[in-house]
Amino acid sequence: xxxxxxTTPNPATLKFLPGRTVLEEGTADFTSEEAAAVSPLAARVFxxxxxxxxxxxxxxxxxxxxxxxxxxxxxxxxLGAIMEHFQSGAPVMEGAAKAAHAEHDGExxxxxxxxxxxxxxxxxxxxxxxxxDITFHGFDxxxxxxxxxxxxxxCPSSTMTLKMGIENLLRHYIPEVTEVRPIA
Length: 184
Hints:
By secondary structure, the chain is an alpha+beta fold. It has helices at residues 40-46, 71-88, 109-129, 158-173; strands at 4-7, 13-17, 28-30, 51-56, 61-65, 132-140, 143-150, 179-183. Strands 1-2-5-4-3 form a 5-stranded antiparallel beta sheet, with helices on one face. A hairpin with a 4-residue loop joins β4 and β5 (61-65). The model has no long low-confidence stretch (mean pLDDT 89).
């Protein structure tokens, strides 16, 4: 098994491509070892000192490190852990990954459907190339709230991506959108 790695715009995050499907559908974002208990793969990766986040996509694993650790020391251990997991035959997740977007009930249903469709067709595929994901969290009085995951969480260029890219795109196609804000 050969695992490729790619840098991301976030210097604290590295993208691992195992050359096979990681998640059949959806994504999974783990920011603590406790949260990773539902994923044998994420739990194995969190077992390595210096890991502060694990994000699972369709065909990649994104790992975020603590600032005090250097990739030169961490990367070989991560490659080994990911390879061991896939060779073990253990599942990536115990149970299904959760839906990407938050549900939204209310009078803005048609607008929210348009927002989710634009995110799914124009934004999320591009963001996945960088090892992350951006999902819909809510819409209120013209403001779209998005959740940034994986390499996007804490990325130095994430504010620019939100304001100059996603906000402009949504405002262009959906006049009711006035602003885009990240949620923690």
